[in-house]
Amino acid sequence: MERKIRSPIKRKVLLLLEAGLVLGDRFHKRRRLNLKALSRAWRGINRSELAYALRDFRYRRLVDYREQNDGSIKIELSELGRRRVLRFKVEEMTLSKAKKWDGRWRVVFFDVPEKKRKGRDALRQKLRELGFHEWQKSVFVYPHPCRDEVDFIVEFFELRPYVRYAELTAPTNEAELRLRFNL
Fold first, then answer.
1. Where are the domains positioned within the chain?
2. Nearest to residue 27, comparing CAs of 19, 37, 12?
3. Three-class SS of residue 36?
4. How much of the chain is helix, strand and coil, in % rounded to 5?
5. What CATH number belongs to 8-91?
6. pLDDT for 8
7. Residues 6 or more apart whose Cβ sits within 8 Å of residue 103
8. What count of other Cβ atoms lies within 10 Å of the Cβ of residue 119?
């Protein structure tokens, strides 16, 4: 079973690696960290905590160490590490609210087969967490732009063929929805 990464330092290290701030040429054969060469983002992390996090990530196969021709070691995210970073992004995702409502309702509806039940339940839970209103069992409504976030979630849970997104301008119970979202 996959262990969660709870440490904020470890999360920061993974996100920095994902953002492209590689530790290439920063570790040498003796695994000594060259603090002078680190960028500002890396300097904010305690040296021993960084070394511990990288050892843990290597053990868990979240990073790959590659020796360069000059003898230095390049540290980069593995495919498993990239998937873990995506999970952080899904867990920490929030939806922004426009200052002025544009009068459109964003609707996410889905019909996910039973064999993908875990993904369906996770999608339903995430939409609730983000503030969507469950209009019907598999239909959720939100008043502000959110298509990119919905697409990201759908791709993350691998439910693309079963989920639809639409925008409505005059649903039959709009007054109820306006009350629900304080519009």
1. 8-91, 105-180
2. 37
3. helix
4. 45, 15, 40
5. 1.10.10.10
6. 67
7. 169
8. 19
Give CA–CA dist 124/146, Å, rounded.
15
pLDDT tens-digit profile of 125-137?
999 999 999 999 8
For the domain with range 105-180, which CATH number is right: 3.30.70.1520, 3.30.70.240, 3.40.50.1000, 2.40.50.140? 3.30.70.240
What's the pLDDT band for 47 if we cut at 50, 70, 90?
confident
pTM of this structure: 0.60
Weakest mean pLDDT among 34-43, 140-149, 159-168? 34-43
Contact by Cβ (8 Å): 22, 75: yes
Q: Which range has the worst mean pLDDT, 97-101, 131-135, 161-165, 175-179?
A: 97-101
Strands (E) across the chain are located at 63-67, 73-77, 105-110, 133-136, 139-142, 163-168
Buried b (16+ CB within 10 A) or exposed e, 78-87: beebeebbee
Token digits for 105?
């309702």
How many beta carbons lie within 10 A of that of residue 73, not counting itself? 16
